[in-house]
Amino acid sequence: MPGIGDNDTKGRLVTIRETMPGDIDGILEAIRRIILMGDIRSVSLRHNEPITYQRILRPGEEIKSSESTASFAELSPIDVVRQISMEEYVDESLEDKSPHSRVMRMFLYMGFDGWVTTHLLMGEKTGFWDWLNVPSLVHKRLNQFLGARIEREKTLPEDVFVLCGAKTKSATIAEIGYALKGNVG
Question: I want to staple 75 with a disulfide (CB 3.0 to 4.6 A). Which of 40, 79, 115, 118 is the partner?
């Protein structure tokens, strides 16, 4: 795999920027994914700036949609979710109907189908936390829940939440490929 330092590849040099993940694990995963693409010439990390990298596009190769997030730059998470496949979670469990069990089964369902739950989308006024019996002192300070980044959306009703999935755990909003809708109550 041609990568950083390999000068034999012919093609066009492109510069791509992507959102900086919010934590160290996310940054490391993003750098790993970038390097594994091959034909990488440089990767730049700067405080409070997106990750910037340069790679060679071989003749006839197009920039991948996951690399071309400019079209998603102005979209909110709900706009992206509306453009992808979404299912409503139906709880078929005969025994434990507790909110905690339902949320856990939803995360498991996402993983079973090959998706990493990267974002949790909920309304700005949501009943999700009360439903799970999480005190407001705690949930107001949370940026993530079970590893998924929390995104708040004004237009979502208070009884709806959406698990968003991508193929890597450090995916940006533009890389979301699947959504699973849940209901409070």
Answer: 79
CA dihedral for 106, 146, 22, 112, sign (positive or negative): negative
Q: Angle 123-124-130 (CA atoms, 0-180°, nearest 5)?
A: 80
53: number of CA atoms within 13 Å, CB side? 25
The sign of the dihedral angle between the CA atoms of 119, 145, 149, 63 is: negative
Place of tokens 């699973």: 180
What residue ranges do the domains of the chain occupy?
12-67, 77-183
pLDDT at 64: 62
At position 175, the amino acid (one-letter code) is E
Is the predicted pLDDT of residue 139 greater than 50, yes or no?
yes
Q: Helices in 113-162 by DSSP H: which ranges?
A: 128-131, 136-139
Q: Please tell me the distance from the alpha carbon of residue 39 to that of residue 54, in angstroms, as a whole number.
A: 9
